[in-house]
Amino acid sequence: TADIFMTAHPEPAAAEHAVPRSAAQDHFANRRTFAIISHPDAGKTTLTEKLLYASGAIRLAGHVKARGERRRTRSDWMEIEQKRGISVTSSVMTFEQDGITFNLLDTPGHQDFSEDTYRTLTAVDSAIMVIDAARGIESQTLKLFEVCRLRDIPIITFVNKIDREARDPLELIDEIAETLALDVTPAVWPVGMGVDFKGVLDLHEKRMLGADGQPNGLSWENDEELSAHEGWMANPAYAGAVENLELAREALPAFDLESYRAGHLTPIFFGSAIKSVGVAELLAAVSRWAPPPRTQPAEPGPVTPERDQVSGFVFKVQANMDKNHRDRIAFVRLCSGTFKRGMKLKNMRLGKDITVSNPMFFFAQDRETADEAVAGDVVGIPNHGTLSVGDTLTEKDDLKFTGIPNFAPEIIRRVRLSDAMKAKQLGRALTDLAEEGVAQVFRPMIGADWLVGVVGPLQLDVLGSRIEQEYGVEIRFEAANFDSARWVASEDKAELKRFLESNRIRLAEDRYGAPVFLAPSRWELQRTEKDWPKLVFQTTRERG
Ligand code: G4P
């Protein structure tokens, strides 16, 4: 009968505000910097909120989301976000539990923002992949997963919404293993799903959690006891779960930390974000298994977190986080050293020092001055346009972090002004927004109009509405008759010069002055590539 699952539980203790940072915590080994990747609607927002709640960073579940509320505070300025019900901005949330500092980087789920998401993923050491238990792997999950794989980012899988009708756990595991070519191993196993949902088996703590996410009194020492308990086995949901789990264990590898950290194996958690089932267990797994700050690719050589000199890079620039001051914050992922407030850091792109006098940490509900930060931490640096996405900041070393690319835009539009007197404001708006990474901006070598390039159409809406609202400039986008854009480069400088001189009408400069070839069609692009074999036509370009 079902009532064995209905043990009464005390309310979870009301969590106090986040513990203050202590000296013991100020070591990079205590940092877990991660992102949640998912397809829209899989439950990323809900899970984020429940993770914050589980850590005690917020007192009331419902705080992050509270539907309209979240949207009002976080992005009032962006009507598009409200209209379309999607979240298009990235940010960071720092929270702490038991001496571990978690830096959760928010990735926009919508595909038009994959560029932004990609850059955010360059700044994390691990990821949680959220999958809707009824839908399995969806298109956006797959894309984001591929980005993680490129960088060998280890992944913990959370199969969400098992409180609803869902697919069979073994079938889901098969799909994940096959579609992603990844080993899967069970960590938290469902007992019933949908109307039969009874809770989950926490295989690490060897205990069962009821449908409310709290321990329901059942625990075991060794796995045989799971099927030996006659009272429990009389319940079909439980018996079915144990049987499935046994099958899974026979077919699947056991957990192996090295294999997980190399990105070959994903532990899988079944749970319900909305009911807080499996969420605390997920957080515990992040603190137990997820890697502390990893070595970051850079030139002339990779940077390890042990290195004394402070270094970091800007992975995101965000404007208007606080409506009262028109501010602009560069999010820097620290990669080495101990950063202290007031420190001078060199912006390698400009070759200029900046004094970081007002760095900030972003907690669930407030920002706080960051007096000290270590590798893995994310600090926000307010600035007026000196910092841009991809910039490397260092204390003394000459080095540059790599792998934070611009992508060749797939949609190119000409920007037309309604009021020709506003050309200057438009230039300012486009430069600012390009620095934030909202769109790419090109100046044609012939002609006065600006061109903008984006990867997805929604980016154009965001760009247009921000230019209008924030800079008071009315614009429209017109077809530009270009099908694709490629950065042109060559070892052979003379050949490059010849190309640039004979193709001026098809050329533009990006905002760093790098030449970009604009092809009217795929065919034309291919022909040009053939005609100029000594040139390379690149689809991505490192920033800076
Ligand atoms: P996203 O950020 O990944 O886009 O997803 P979000 O958390 O906004 O969740 C999408 C929808 O799925 C929401 O429903 C949310 O309540 C629901 N959901 C999230 N986790 C669970 C879960 O564990 N179980 C069930 N049954 N539902 C879940 P909505 O109807 O769009 O919004 P709301 O009105 O319920 O807030």
UniProtKB/TrEMBL annotation:
It is found in: Cytoplasm. Keywords: Cytoplasm, GTP-binding, Nucleotide-binding, Protein biosynthesis. Its main location: cytoplasm. One of its GO terms (molecular function) is GTPase activity. GTP binds at residues 38-45, 106-110. One of its GO terms (cellular component) is cytosol. One of its GO terms (biological process) is regulation of translational termination. Residues 29-294 form the Tr-type G domain. Coiled coil: none annotated. PROSITE patterns: G_TR_1, G_TR_2. Increases the formation of ribosomal termination complexes and stimulates activities of RF-1 and RF-2. It binds guanine nucleotides and has strong preference for UGA stop codons. It may interact directly with the ribosome. The stimulation of RF-1 and RF-2 is significantly reduced by GTP and GDP, but not by GMP. Belongs to the TRAFAC class translation factor GTPase superfamily. Classic translation factor GTPase family. PrfC subfamily. This is Peptide chain release factor 3.
